[in-house]
Amino acid sequence: MKIKDKSALIIAILIPVTVGVLSALFSRNMSLYSKINKPPISPPGFIFPIVWIILYILMGISSYIIYISDSPEKWKSLKTYALQLFFNFWWSIIFFRFSLYLFAFLWLLALIVLISVMVYQFYQINKISAYLQIPYLLWCVFAAYLNFMIYRLN
């Protein structure tokens, strides 16, 4: 990938990272994870920020690739990207701050649908940008499993 505009790439990466950081700050109750009943394959809490920062960086790079494309569909795709970021932002607040596990699970299912649509739209413009989103999609599917099991166990 040739970087056409370094400042646009940095901004593209900072957008999802900022969304994630703000969401974590507004969630306020991240220590809840250590106190609730979890399924056996739950990762330790320290794994989540590491995974999320990697995913946010990949999301930013992916959105940058779409942004610099000449595709007439790029703005539609970036709107889907923004909408899924909105859903991403609110999920941890719904889950951690309000402990609404079932609602958070349903919200996460909607997020997974939005991510899937975004991946499809990105794929139509640039395959690499879509591939960069696959780890995010898979992580959210895993998060949905954890969310549902936490709902069931608590």
On the 0 to 100 scale, the average pLDDT is: 95
How many β-strand runs? 0
% residues in beta strands: under 5%
Structural class: mainly alpha
Biggest β-sheet: count, sense, barrel? Answer: none
Q: Describe the global form.
A: elongated
Helical run tally: 7
Query: What is the alpha-carbon Rg in Å?
Result: 16 Å
Task: Record keyword descriptors for this entry.
single chain, 154 residues, mainly alpha, 79% helix, 0% strand, elongated
Summary, kept brief:
This protein is an all-alpha fold. The protein has helices spanning 6-27, 32-35, 47-67, 74-97, 101-125, 127-131, 134-153.
Question: Can you walk through the features of this model?
Answer:
The N and C termini lie far apart (46 Å). Helices cover 79% and strands 0% of the residues. With 154 residues, it is an all-alpha fold. The protein has helices at residues 6-27, 32-35, 47-67, 74-97, 101-125, 127-131, 134-153. The longest helix is centred in the C-terminal third of the chain and has 25 residues, at 101-125. The model has no long low-confidence stretch (mean pLDDT 95). The chain is elongated. Helix 1 (6-27) runs antiparallel to helix 3, helix 1 (6-27) packs parallel to helix 4 and helix 4 runs antiparallel to helix 5 (101-125). The chain contains seven helices and no strands.
Give me the secondary-structure topology:
Layout: H1 6-27, H2 32-35, H3 47-67, H4 74-97, H5 101-125, H6 127-131, H7 134-153
